[in-house]
């Protein structure tokens, strides 16, 4: 196989340098370039040279979900592999819906990452081992317990629960609006309704409420990249 052209989009410079160094040691791969945001990529990318885009989810100005959607709109054949610390089902689902071809955690081994890049470059889908286990657990009944707890939540709508889970993960209104494709004003309205219905006054109180009712997960990857 010819060298696989890879373009990395991530706002953590040290992480990008590390990935570039690791992949450069593999003759199968060629690093085409790097960008610290979605906008930077869209302004400078030469798509014909790129076989796989490695995209983080939580970046300034534009989420990985939105970037993936725009890349697919520009070129339906563009291949995107999510490379992130977020292992929530909701994130995986959003990336799949936006057109991502694969999803791997940053904690994955080099072997898993290189395999993922190769498979995605061939037009196949690839989900890391940890992501597969999470999805199996979700389907196998873990979500049922959360659903039972949600039944006791005070009249929160599906959208309010979605926004609540992002608020407790410390996303700003602007980031939430970008991720859900709604306006900041709409996010603020939902935010006020959530605090009113839950009768809490702080994000810490909201986090305790979310944990009690199973409305958000608090895994290691939720508060970091």
In short:
With about 220 residues, the chain is of the alpha/beta class. The chain is built from ten helices and six strands; from the N terminus they run βαβαβαβαβαβααααα.
- Which structural category do the helix and sheet elements fall into? alpha/beta
- Multimerization status: single chain
| Integer tally of domains | 2
Order of helices and strands: EHEHEHEHEHEHHHHH
The low-confidence runs, each spanning 5 or more residues with pLDDT under 50, are 141-152, 218-225
> How many beta-strand elements?
6
Strand ordering within the main sheet = 2-1-3-4-5-6
What's the CATH architecture of the largest domain?
Answer: 3-Layer(aba) Sandwich
Task: Tell me the fraction of residues in β-strands, as a range.
Answer: 5-15%
The radius of gyration is 18 Å
**Helicity level:** 40-55%
Mean pLDDT: 83
What is the tally of helical segments? 10
Q: Describe the biggest sheet?
A: 6 strands, parallel
CATH structural fold name of the largest domain? Rossmann fold
Separation, N- and C-terminal Cα atoms: 32 Å
What is the CATH superfamily of the largest domain?
Response regulator
**Shape, per Cα inertia axes:** elongated
Which CATH class of the largest domain is shown?
Alpha Beta
Structure explained in plain terms:
With 225 residues, the protein is α/β, with parallel strands linked by helices. The chain has two domains: 4-131, Rossmann fold, CATH 3.40.50.2300; 152-223, Arc Repressor Mutant, subunit A (Orthogonal Bundle), CATH 1.10.10.10. It is 52% helix and 12% strand. The chain has ten helices and six strands, in the order E-H-E-H-E-H-E-H-E-H-E-H-H-H-H-H. The protein has helices at 13-24, 38-44, 64-74, 89-98, 110-121, 129-150, 158-167, 173-180, 184-198, 203-213, and strands at 4-9, 29-35, 52-55, 80-84, 102-105, 126-127. The chain has a six-stranded parallel sheet with strand order 2-1-3-4-5-6, sandwiched between helices. Strand 3, helix 3 (64-74) and strand 4 form a beta-alpha-beta unit. Helix 3 runs parallel beside helix 4 (89-98) and helix 7 (158-167) packs across helix 9. The protein is elongated, with a radius of gyration of 18 Å.
């Amino acid at each position: 196989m010819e060298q696989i052209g890879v373009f990395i989009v991530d706002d953590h410079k040290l992480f990008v340098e590390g990935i570039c160094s690791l992949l450069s040691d593999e003759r199968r791969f060629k690093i085409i370039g790097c960008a610290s945001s979605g906008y930077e990529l869209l302004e400078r990318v030469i798509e014909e040279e790129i076989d796989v885009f490695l995209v983080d989810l939580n970046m300034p100005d534009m989420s990985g979900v939105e970037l993936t959607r725009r890349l697919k709109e520009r070129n339906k054949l563009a291949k995107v592999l999510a490379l992130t610390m977020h292992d929530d089902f909701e994130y995986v689902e959003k990336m799949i819906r936006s057109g991502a071809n694969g999803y791997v955690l940053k904690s994955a081994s080099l072997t898993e990452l290189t395999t993922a890049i190769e498979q995605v470059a061939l037009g196949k889908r690839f989900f890391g081992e940890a992501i597969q286990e999470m999805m199996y657990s979700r389907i196998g009944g873990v979500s049922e317990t959360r659903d039972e707890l949600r039944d006791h939540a005070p009249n929160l709508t599906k959208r309010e629960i979605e926004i609540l889970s992002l608020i407790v993960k410390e996303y700003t209104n602007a980031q939430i609006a970008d991720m859900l494709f709604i306006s900041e004003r709409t996010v603020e309205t939902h935010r006020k309704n959530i605090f009113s219905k839950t009768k809490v006054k702080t994000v810490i109180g909201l986090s305790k409420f979310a944990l009690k009712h199973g409305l958000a997960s608090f895994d290691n990857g939720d508060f970091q990249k």
